[in-house]
Structure formats: C-alpha cells, structure tokens
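idk why but the lab printer keeps eating my pages so im just putting this in chat instead. protein + manganese (II) ion:
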Amino acid sequence: MTVESGTTLREGDGSGAGVEILGARDVPLGGPRSMTVRRTLPQRGRTLIGAWCFADHYGPDDVTATGGMDVAPHPHTGLQTVSWLFSGEIEHRDSLGSHAFVRPGELNLMTGGSGISHSEVSTPGTTTLHGVQLWVALPDEHRHAARDFQHHVPEPVSLDGAELRVFLGSLAGVTSPVRTFTPLLGAQLTLSAGASVSLDLDPGFEHGILVDAGDVHVDGTAVRPAELAYVTPGRTTLTVTNGTREAARLILLGGPPFGEEIVMWWNFVGRTDEDIRQAREDWEHGDRFGVVHGYDGDRLSAPTLPNVPLKPRRNPS
Ligand code: MN
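predcted complex ->
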C-alpha cells in the first residue's frame, strides 16, 4: 500500500503568490533487487500538469547497492514515455524494434498509443543511475496513435549563470523539434552557485518545477530536492534562484491544463474502466502490444485488477 503524500502551500518571501508544493512518495519499482523511485505525479491533490501525468525521480543510486534498473518487457497504452538521465545509461528495447541507449542529456520519447511494449535495463558500465521517467497523457483524439520512438539531443543554451536544455516545447527562445500531441514544455535547467534566472512563460500553460538538487527558490518559495512545485496558468514570468554554493538542477514541465478525465492503472492510460480491463486482457492473452526481442528474461505479468470499477481522475478545479 502506498501513502499519498500531501500538498502544501508554502509561503514565499511575499514577492509573489504561493507556489503549491507537491511532495514525493517512495515507490519500489519491483523486481528481485528493487530500486526505489520518488513519485510526485499522480497524487491525491494533482493528477496532471498539462498532459504530464506521471513523474518518477530516482538516484543518484550506486547500482552496486541497488542493482540498478531492470524492468522486463511491459505494455503501455494512451501515453508517451520520456526517459531523461542525469547520469548512467539505460538500454531500451521495444516492440517497434527500437534498440536504443538512453544517455544523459538525450531525450527518448516513446509513443504507446494503441499499444507498445518495452524493456529498460541499466547497462553494465553504469555505476551511478540518476534521472527521471515521465509520462505524457495523449488527448482522446490521438490516444490510439501508432507506436513510435523518437530520439533527440537538445543543444544546451547558456543563460546568465544557467544552462538550459529544452527537450520538448519552447522556452527562452529555444524550441525542440520533437512533435507532441498537445502543447508541452519539458526542459532541464542547471543554475550555477548563487545564480538567478527569470524565464518568460506561456500564460496559457500551468507549470511544474521538479528539483533534483540545490537550494532552489521559485518566485521566492523554497522548493526542496525531490519536491515538485506547481505554478498555476496565468504567469508570464518565473524566477528561479539557487542559494547553494554548488550547482542546482531542476526539470521544468508545462502545458495547457488537460481538460479530460483519465483512468490510470498500472502502465495504461485510458478513459474508462473498460479500456483498462481490455488492455490488461490483451497483454495477458493477445498480441496487441507486439514482442520485445533481445531482453534476457520473462516479460512482466499484469497485476490483478480491483473488483470495483476503476475511477476516472482529474485535477481539482
Ligand atoms: Mn515503461
């Protein structure tokens, strides 16, 4: 059983409105030598930020202690997965036939619309594993999109005391060429010691700032490592400062509020309980998700569904 972490409104220095802090909860990923991730989306107080519906943050983990990552072939529907590393390397295989290595600073975006399966394994050369795994919900009209896999290496851009890598969407005049099904922002920002950066925002977007490291303040509000700060639509600028003597690193997420209700269970995003039950049945007994070749071991079995219908979730209004 997992305990949903709460949300708090932490007051800033009075310079702006309160920033909502979404705390992380620890979730074991499963497997014989389980690594634990810090999950900030979804949680009771918030299902999505834009179309971002899932945020796992992990490491830095010494893989000799945790065993690293070894996620056997498993299915996805109705979403895209974003793998973004700070250190280490992950070998990705999917039922499209993709065989790719996920490396720091490189976007790997997998579309599992109507159905895809994949495996993710940290490579033998990996000593420290550190990064995020994010999911994007597909809008109803595109949620059965064909499976796809895209790789993109954003050019780092220097700002005053900061470095920005925009992997999805646009920020600070930098635009990622990667196509998305709804407007999105996904970027890594590193701030040198004592740096402060003001970013122009799309006021139609809501934003999330996931802090990996550093003494970060967002519009004057402290956001601790592993916390996700939520910022409502309507903002035109955001000021991020680093009060430490070492570099700070954070992930910026954003998008227009996703107006649809979704049903999330295991690795599936659907709209109804029936969508999810069908997807589970197809994984256990059908060929909808294709086959992952080259993974050394068995694929994952779906967990047992609850006896009661799965409820749609949406953001608080
Ligand atoms: Mn996956």
